[in-house]
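Protein entry
_____________
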Amino acid sequence: MILQELQMEVGERAKCVAGYPHKSTLIIECIKDFDSAPNDDHIIDNVYQYVKVIDGGQYGALTSHWISSKWTSNVYQ
C-alpha cells in the first residue's frame, strides 16, 4: 500500500522497508490527519507536515520510502 492510502490519523504509526541499493526500515508517526490534506499528492509533497520519523534505520528517510508501495500501518516499536 502506498503511504497516502493508509489514511493515517494523529498518533498512528507505519513502517516501510525500501531503499536502493540497500534496504532499510523506516518507522513514522502521524502528526496531522491525512484526511485533512486537500489531495493525496499534498501528503507526499509536504510529508513532514503529516509525519515525523520515529526510526530512520541505518540510512534515514529516503525518497524510495516515500514512493514505496510497501507501507504497513499500525506498527508499534
In short: The longest helix spans residues 40-45.
